Amino acid sequence: MRAVFPEGFLWGVATASYQIEGADFEDGKGPSIWTDFSHRPGKVNSGDNGDVACDHYHRFSEDIELMKQLGVNSYRFSISWSRVLPEGRGKINRKGSDFYNKLIDRLLEVGIQPMVTLYHWDLPLELHRKIDGWESRDMRHYFGDYSSLVFSEFGDRVKHWITLNEPYCSSHVSYLWGEHAPGKRDLKTSLTVAHNLLLSHGEAVRRFREVVKDGTIGLANVSTFVEPATDSKEDRWAARIRDQFINGWFFETPITGEYPSELFKRFNDAGVQPLIEDGDMDLISTPFDFWGVNYYTRNVIRKEESSILGSEVVQGELAKTEMGWEVYPEGLEAFLYKTFKEYGKKPIYITENGMACKDKLTDGFVEDFERVDYMKRHFSSALSALKAGVDLRGFYVWSLLDNFEWSYGYSKRFGLVYVDYEKGLKRIPKRSYYYYRDFLERD
Ligand SMILES: N=[N+]=NCCCCNC(=O)[C@@H]1[C@H]2[C@H](O)[C@@H](O)[C@H](O)[C@@H](CO)[C@@H]12
């Protein structure tokens, strides 16, 4: 099926620094908010943390070899801010930047194009402690300085960049529901954080234009397809508002320079809206080049007036992954089409798509047929979107390796490659790895 995708289409795998690197205290790296959070009792399943993770920091050559054998032509990864700037600002840690230079050079040697995420949730702990992290408007300056530094360091070889990974999660999962670092629970705070994240996105795009003249930069959002539980007016309205909260707030605002109006009014009436200063919305809507769509599933929504969103998520009836997320590839095509049509007709990369399975080693192998089926159906959905006219440029499977799944720790496996945490982090390609390899090989 690969041959029907456009020439130059990027087929890749995606990872993130805190989830795979380990070496969390090595070679001058500073702690992140996840270093702190994962070491707090009760915050992460079984007390797991990213101190070692998949030890990618020391084993990156082996992991690149796995990518080369897989046959991908691109690899999406994130830079650990506190590895290159241990306190989030000030002097660069050369050992940290050397790691990424070696990683990037090796990728290019084997013909794999890097796509680099500037921020995938691991904020330098010093910035959180000294200036309240993302709650502070000053973060746009520190994020801008960090961005300029890495653009200067790596922008000669890295031509595809993503400012933020899923600001929805770094704001609401982290500051409203408290499930992610730093574990706060307040809507006004999470909306302020979302605003500061979007300001920082805009600032990074402006810095990018100054430094990298021949590259492209985008924003990767949670992309959950939202549907009403029934065809009633109430449920359709509830789904519209919930779609603005999950998707529109981060897809529409950087395009229009305005927050989605119905939802903003609800927040304003409740006195929890973010403080918007002159110039903010211009900065947030600084033009960028592409969308990153991280698609996993859909949310079925019904009216529920007791919540400020006026809705609640209901359990759908479809088969679910180990995360409890419905398998709904149709939602990917619909979401891609909606994003392309309604949010600026920009090129789109599927920057994450994958599933957690109950992967078990049997005679030294993992027959993850469910994941193979999930991939087949989502590749097919992506192809349908392309045929419908969506300017889809690439597809990154989440993830290359089983890794640290945030508050679930190592209990949830998303990898094409099994990581044996009991046996020296041995990498064992699963059935899905070979499916993807054959898919990429075949014309
Ligand atoms: N209902 N429901 N909802 C689906 C909402 C998904 C929200 N979580 C993500 O998108 C995270 C993204 C993250 O980039 C990565 O670091 C995570 O490892 C993957 C897997 O969890 C996904």
Would you mind describing this structure in some detail?
The model has no long low-confidence stretch (mean pLDDT 98). The chain is of the alpha/beta class. It starts with 9 loop residues before the first strand and ends with a helix. The protein has one domain: Alpha-Beta Barrel (TIM Barrel), CATH 3.20.20. The chain is built from 16 helices and 13 strands. The chain binds the ligand N=[N+]=NCCCCNC(=O)[C@@H]1[C@H]2[C@H](O)[C@@H](O)[C@H](O)[C@@H](CO)[C@@H]12. Ligand 8P5 binds next to loops. The ligand N=[N+]=NCCCCNC(=O)[C@@H]1[C@H]2[C@H](O)[C@@H](O)[C@H](O)[C@@H](CO)[C@@H]12 binds at residues 16, 19, 165-166, 169, 222, 224, 294, 296-297, 299, 325, 352, 398, 405, 414.
Q: What's the tally of helices? A: 16
Relative strand content? 15-25%
Which architecture does the CATH hierarchy give at level 2?
Alpha-Beta Barrel
CATH class: Alpha Beta
Bound molecules: the ligand N=[N+]=NCCCCNC(=O)[C@@H]1[C@H]2[C@H](O)[C@@H](O)[C@H](O)[C@@H](CO)[C@@H]12
Helix residue percentage: 40-55%
Main sheet record: 8 strands, parallel, barrel
N-to-C SSE series?
A: EHHHEHHEHHEHHEEHHHHEEEHEHEEEH
| DSSP summary, beta strand count | 13
The CATH H-level superfamily is Glycosidases
Overall pLDDT: 98
Shape: globular
Radius of gyration: 21 Å
**Uncertain spans:** none
Distance between the termini: 7 Å
CATH topology: TIM Barrel
Strand sequence of the main sheet, in spatial order? 1-2-3-4-5-7-10-11
Structural class call reads: alpha/beta
Please tell me the total number of domains: 1
Family: Belongs to the glycosyl hydrolase 1 family.
Organism: Mesotoga prima MesG1.Ag.4.2
EC number: 3.2.1.21
GO molecular function, one term: beta-glucosidase activity
